[in-house]
Amino acid sequence: MDPTVTRVLAEASVKIALFFGVVLTVIAYMTWVERRVSAWIQDRRGPNRVGPFGLLQPLADGIKFLFKEAITPPHVYRPVYLLAPALIFIPALVTFSVVPIGPTMSLFGRRIPLLIADVDNGILIILAFASMGVYGVALAGWSSNNKYSLMGGLRSSAQLISYELAMGIAIVGVLMATGSLRLTDIVTHQITNGWNALWQLPGFLIFVTAAFAETNRLPFDLPEAETELVAGYHTEYSGMRFSMFYMAEYANMITASALATTLYLGGYHVPGLAALGLPENAAAIVQVLAFCLKVAMFLFVFVWVRWTLPRFRYDQLMNLGWKGLLPIALAHVLWVSFLVLGGRA
Amino acid sequence: MDDARAQPPSMRPVPPETEDALHGDTMVVNMGPSHPSTHGVLRLVLRLDGEVVKAVQPHVGYLHRGMEKIAEGMTYNQFVPYTDRLDYLAPLSNNVAYILAVEKLLAITVPPRARVIRVICCEIARISAHLLWLGTGALDLGAATVFFHTFRERETLYNLIESLTGGRLTTSYTRVGGLSRDLPAGWADRLGEFTRAFPKVLDELDSLLSRNRIWMNRTQGVGRISASDAIAMSLTGPNLRGSGVALDLRKTEPYSGYEAYEFDVPVGREGDAYDRYLVRLEEMRQSVRILDQALGRLPDGAIAVDDPKITLPKKERVLTSMEELIEQFMLVTEGIKGPLGEVYHAIEAPKGELGFYLKSEGDKSPYRLHIRSPSFISLQAVEKMAVGGLLSDLIAVVASLDPVMGEVDR
After folding, report:
1. CATH number of the domain bearing residue B129
2. Which pLDDT belongs to residue A281?
3. Domain map of chain A by residue range?
4. Which of B28, B35, B49, B392 to mutate to test the interface with A (most CBs of A within 10 A)?
5. How many C-alpha atoms does B382 have within 13 Å on its Cβ side?
6. How far is B80 from chain A (nearest CA, A)?
7. Does the residue B313 lie in any domain?
8. Which of A227, A303, A308, A319 to probe by mutation at the B interface, max B CB count within 10 Å?
């Protein structure tokens, strides 16, 4: 094999292993963070028995899920029932591969961009995979052959479609400003022209709201709505298959946070870092940390909101999506296009 | 699943389906008796058209223990522990309600200290029951945090109840002619601390929900019932007052000296879930007012009548004096003999009018005991309130009616 191809493949494999290793660990620890933060909000202690500060709790939970019997009820449609958890989990992870977490680093005499796939249609890939997630939910609800699950699946398809639309249109504002679908271009554009959130605030807010809906988190957790639909689309799942749904929710949160950071908060950009004159690799590490910090901030907001707000009703959710967010998103795009024509960006 | 099989044959026929090509088939969903938001073992059989509720049928009886029949074989005091298990969120006020009926039958007046302590008990029960309603109601609509905040406050109340009665849930505190024991030392001060701190917590809960846009959307205009309908269904308590009828037995038929306390009866205007929420929130504030007044006027003295036919004599006297020994023996072996006659007495329990009907034929046990429980009657309104709304509204309706199954199925 051509040595260049081998090198490229090796580099990509290492990055994939590293990225997804980190993301999966963060998913596990998000369950811990969620429980500790919710406990803090609710005046409780949260898990604090397994390891220092309960830090080994995710490990214990993981082991528990692995050893639990994964019951397949007799009334389900097996092929789809078994496929659905993977269908929801994989798209959530894959989206992360186009997000740049830092600038280029120099390692072993090679220039290594800190992202897995620097594709020129990054945003389209993100939107495509985000739409894939709904199949997992809808199919899980349908194949479970349970009325509550079916309703959860139906709610979810309606919800995701309406909010994806608003989200996609909000992103158009960013695209127009940058003139590129490539996420690295969007970040570099923000480094030279200021963060998008500063002058595209409506778009940013719509994106974050839609992200809550996309991740099925309160106040948009209608597809599972525990107190209405028992557990919605994953009522009939148990063991590791159930935990796949659970992990997918956190994977979605992390991806959504990373996207919001990249599209609106300048990605890994740290204002004023260039003035310090750090060596390239050190600056890159600082920027990666800054990226993580911004993502962590979003993740905290996700948790915070979940434990504060009640849940929307189905029709109110639809109204908000179609009569609230969508018109605002369209008006926002119009406004941004005037600004772009006027030479703002 | 086969829809026809989900309907038990005993069910009265659901309204006939209209042919509707646009909306297609309806779906029968069996919600409960085991479901996260049916508050115990309420079972609702729903016919849904998509998310719209076309028909609701509440099924009760999963917690039936035959209490009214059991009472016919017990002495009057022996039945007190059974009343704990009626509305198990407010056992203290059930104890008081039952014992007041018995005392009405026996025509006894209890000493002033016992009367004030009973008022304190009723209001503690009201706060703790309303707190639980607020927590679970918010949880049903997705606001999980409120639940934990209310439980933190309930913990304080339960600790108070525990040191007062010896039990947290099964209080069995009242006795015919008075109370089982006096307030422990320092108890009144501890309650005073609670009444000082609690209004701030209420404001906190208020600020979390009352002006929250999602909460308002979920409860305003949901489960609306007019005053005349509410009266026709004999709703009582906050469910009736939410529709604007200021009926409160503490005002209209005062017992235990409620006429001497100053408090307001909050009423709603729309009769929707939001109004019932506001009414209960305000009732907790009024209960704090009553508690403060009661603590301020707590008299010294006996906590039970001094009548050997009704209350047990002092233990040291029983061991030294013949007369008291005989009195104790008679009371324990034969119980209190009720006079011929029948009475009905009701109090304003947290959920509404909790009444006990007693018929006595001169025996140690009632010939017949009937419990008029507010939750049982509230459940009638579910159908009227929920049909035509969405599935999510049904959850809000059931939560806002605040049924407790222990009291629905006696």
Report:
1. 1.10.645.10
2. 81
3. 70-341
4. B392
5. 28
6. 34
7. no
8. A227
The reply to whether B24 falls in a domain is no
Cα–Cα distance, B14 to B119 (Å, whole number): 45
pLDDT in tens, B156-192: 999 999 999 988 888 989 988 888 888 898 898 999 9
B256 within some domain:
yes
Residue A286 banded pLDDT, cuts 50, 70, 90: confident
User: What is the count of structural domains for chain B?
Assistant: 1
What is the amino acid identity at position B43?
R
Residue B282 forms part of a structural domain: yes
Confidence at residue B20, expressed as pLDDT on a 0 to 100 scale: 53
The residue range of the domain holding B156 is 67-306+337-408
A vs B, Cβ pairs < 8 A, gives: 81
Which pairs with CB-CB distance under 8 Å and at least 24 residues apart come from B26-35? Answer: B26/B54, B27/A147, B27/B3, B28/B3, B29/A147, B29/A148, B30/B6, B32/B59, B33/B59, B33/B62, B35/A230
Q: Minimal Cα distance from A150: which residue of B?
A: B50
Confidence of residue A173 (pLDDT cuts 50, 70, 90): confident
Interface of A with B (CB under 8 A): 38, 41-44, 75, 145, 147-148, 151, 155, 218-219, 221, 225-228, 230, 307-316
| B391:A151 CB<8 A | yes
pLDDT, tens digit (0-9, with 9 covering 90-100), for A39-89: 888 888 888 888 888 888 888 888 888 888 888 888 888 888 888 888 888
